[in-house]
């Protein structure tokens, strides 16, 4: 019988009156024998418990019975914190009127806490140069990267590849976040609207697609052009945008309806670049016929043509003041045009070699240094990133990224912070 057995308690009669019936006493506690006890026999040996049965561990390809899932070595991931200077700038701008009240940076590591973003040093444009290589990111699907574009927030980078994929990269830790099959053919052009709500992309098949901030595709026009869509540009109001293609045409589109309004015909060969005027209905385009043309977007009429290049014009850009046009091509020459006048200033990039294998692929105005200074960032087919100070016609910095590669240079302003990035791509035709 066990102490406190419920069945035994049921068989016992219940106490009557004030009597209390006690149960059996608990068993006496005795000390367990141990190896040091003197009561044990001298020949006593304590037997160890049997070992556990062997487990069937998976057999991996290295010839051992360790788990197939190996522990990876912990590596420190490199990251760039670009928000510290912005936080410091927000703290000091309440007590500083202009550059006269700014603290002078001393050449010591301790002065790094007083460093401000490039927007705070308009009198020193060299602070906006990307003079140090940071990181190389590789996609799983090895193919050429034709376009790179920062998101409106400046925190992520979107790349358009030869396989038609969008890859979203983290701008701080440089790891990829998402891969999306956006197009059926190679992506050739991408542009964000001025309100930062929409992105338009074009591919080798002549198709145009609309994308939201969350990379949701909302509209497709598969017959926009007959050949590759080389460049895109929005007007200031985002109601219209233009596109150029290898089918020798420049087209003006209604953004809401995604319908063609006008087709500008005048180039004799592939059109490589187009840009909309910052404030007017004026377009500038450049192509493989070595010509730079100005167009009236309302009437579709050609206004004038520039004959300043001796080879394919690969890039044309308006300045934000609306008076300057920059053109660049395979002849290694940057042309600076003042309004609708003839090309007056010629800037050499300083790399004079075989003109058929070296050319300028992309360029951007340094927005924060205008109108105090005019600085151009450009990339050439040798894989060199150049910063040119146009006021003295001198090359400031030069960075090499390897041979027989091109650079796509993009500039994004995020909370008064300028970030200039370069992405390696194959040579554009």
From TrEMBL:
Q: Which domain of life is it from?
A: Eukaryota
- Write out the ranges of the annotated region (Disordered): 1-66
Q: Where is the IFT140 first beta-propeller domain?
A: 138-219
Q: Where is the composition biased (Polar residues)?
A: 29-42
WD repeat residue intervals:
138-170, 180-212, 222-263, 264-305, 306-335
Compositional bias annotation for Low complexity? 1-16
Q: Does the keyword Ribosomal protein apply?
A: no
PROSITE patterns on file: WD_REPEATS_1, WD_REPEATS_2, WD_REPEATS_REGION
- TM ranges are 372-395, 401-420
Q: Which SUPFAM superfamilies match?
A: WD40 repeat-like
User: What keywords would UniProt list here?
Assistant: Membrane, Repeat, Transmembrane, Transmembrane helix, WD repeat
One example of a Gene Ontology biological process annotation: mRNA 3'-end processing
Keyword ATP-binding found: no
Q: What's any one GO cellular component for it?
A: mRNA cleavage and polyadenylation specificity factor complex
* Pfam families documented for this protein: Beta-prop_IFT140_1st, WD40
Q: What is this protein called?
A: Flowering time control protein FY
Q: Which organism is it from?
A: Hibiscus syriacus
């Amino acid at each position: 019988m066990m102490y406190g057995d419920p069945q035994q308690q049921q068989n016992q009669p219940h106490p009557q009156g004030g009597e209390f019936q006690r149960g059996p006493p608990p068993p006496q506690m005795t000390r367990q024998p141990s190896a040091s006890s003197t009561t044990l026999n001298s020949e006593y040996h304590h037997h160890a418990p049997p070992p556990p049965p062997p487990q069937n561990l998976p057999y991996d390809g290295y010839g051992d019975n360790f788990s197939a899932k190996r522990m990876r070595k912990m590596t420190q991931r490199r990251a760039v914190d670009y928000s510290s200077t912005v936080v410091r700038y927000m703290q000091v701008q309440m007590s500083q009127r202009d550059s006269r009240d700014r603290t002078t940076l001393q050449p010591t590591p301790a002065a790094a806490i007083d460093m401000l973003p490039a927007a705070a040093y308009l009198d020193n444009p060299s602070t906006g140069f990307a003079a140090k290589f940071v990181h190389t990111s590789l996609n799983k699907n090895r193919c050429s990267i034709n376009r790179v574009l920062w998101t409106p927030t400046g925190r992520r980078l979107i790349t358009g590849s030869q396989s038609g994929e969008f890859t979203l990269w983290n701008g701080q830790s440089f790891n990829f976040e998402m891969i999306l099959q956006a197009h059926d053919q190679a992506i050739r052009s991408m542009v964000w609207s001025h309100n930062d709500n929409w992105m338009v992309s074009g591919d080798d098949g002549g198709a145009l697609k609309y994308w939201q901030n969350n990379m949701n595709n909302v509209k497709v026009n598969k017959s926009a052009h007959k050949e590759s869509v080389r460049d895109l540009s929005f007007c200031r109001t985002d109601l219209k945008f233009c596109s150029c293609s290898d089918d020798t045409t420049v087209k003006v589109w209604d953004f809401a309806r995604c319908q063609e309004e006008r087709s500008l015909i005048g180039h004799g060969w592939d059109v490589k670049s187009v840009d909309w005027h910052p404030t007017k209905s004026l377009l500038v385009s450049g192509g493989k016929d070595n010509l730079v043309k100005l167009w009236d977007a309302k009437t579709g009429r050609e206004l004038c043509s520039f004959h300043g290049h001796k080879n394919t014009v690969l890039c044309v850009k308006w300045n934000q003041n609306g008076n300057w046009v920059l053109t660049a091509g395979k002849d290694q020459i940057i042309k600076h045009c003042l309004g609708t006048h003839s090309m007056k200033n010629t800037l050499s990039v300083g790399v004079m070699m075989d003109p058929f294998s070296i050319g300028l692929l992309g360029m951007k105005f340094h927005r924060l240094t205008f109108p105090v200074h005019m600085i151009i960032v450009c990339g050439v087919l040798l894989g060199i990133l150049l910063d040119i100070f146009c006021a003295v016609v001198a090359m400031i910095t030069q960075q090499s990224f390897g041979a027989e590669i091109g650079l796509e240079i993009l500039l994004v302003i995020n909370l008064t912070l300028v970030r200039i990035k370069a992405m390696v791509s194959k040579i554009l035709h």
